[in-house]
Structures are given as C-alpha cells and as structure tokens.
Amino acid sequence: MPKEQLRYDRMVETALRGVVRDALTDVAERGLPGNHHFYLTFRTGYPGIDIPEYLTSQYPNEMTIVLQFQYYGLEVHDDHFEVTLSFNNVHERLVIPFAAITTFADPSVNFALQFQPATPGESADVAAIPARPVTVERKDESKTADDAPAEEPKRGEVVALDAFRKK
C-alpha cells in the first residue's frame, strides 16, 4: 500500500487563510487602523456563499468587495465571515466562507495573498484553526484635514485587482 505524501500545499493554503481570518478578527474587534483597507475576491458560486441573487447574476464567477469605510456587523467565524455592505444604497448581508476566497489584499501596506480555489471537501481544512467570534458595528469615520464634510464614499464598488499584482 503506497504511503500518502504530506500535502504541504494544503497546509500552506490553510495557514494563509488563517492570516485572512486573523486580520478580519482584529478588524472586527478594533476597527481598521490607519489607512488599512481590504480587497477580498471570492468565488460567488462556492458552496456556503450567501449573497443576493442580483449580485450572483452580475458576478457569476468572482466578486471583489472592499472593506474600508462603510461596512457593518462584521462577524468572523471558524469557516466563514459575515458583513453588511451597501450596494446602490441598499444594505445587503454577505456570508463568505474562507475557502471561497481567491485573493486578499491590503493595498495600504502593499500586501496580497492569492489562493488556489479550494474544493468544497477542502473547506473543512480551512475551519481547522479556531477563530474568536466577534461582532462590531463600524461607522464611517473619514474626515478631511480641515474637518469639512467628507465626500460620500462609493458603495458596492467591485474592482479589478490587476493593479496590485506583480507583472
């Protein structure tokens, strides 16, 4: 009977998805420090994804969300996170399994992780590292230098991450 090889590739992917979970957990507990903001790209058809049908229709393969100024009710769990974002002035609750994430980026510090899409059977590996569930309401605290009213931030914008990838 042949011995199975150690799957270091899966171990690394699981550990790096844990980095995403830890970053989101810190943000859920304390908010985004400084200029940090996150771009998260995920597979919209992945099992466990819960997003409005019109977003799935508009983005049948992948979608990128931005966590910066206007996000609400960020909850981080062992195998997924939940967040409320505004799309065309309508608040929508998104449920995203960590295994569905294909890219995580924090452009403020030039940091990005790109993942091989996990198969649904591998998602149990992603949940192997426990997280601390937290819920925090986060409000827009952006102000200009002279305390003039800040411009209304864009809502529900989906962006391409090609600008952040090394060529």
UniProtKB/TrEMBL annotation:
Residue ranges of the region described as Disordered: 122-167
SUPFAM superfamilies in the cross-refs: SspB-like
Start-end of Basic and acidic residues biased regions: 135-157
Gene3D superfamilies: SspB-like (2.30.30.220)
Domain of life according to the entry: Bacteria
InterPro entries in alphabetical order: SspB, SspB-like_sf
Record-given protein name: Stringent starvation protein B
Organism of this sequence: Azospirillum doebereinerae
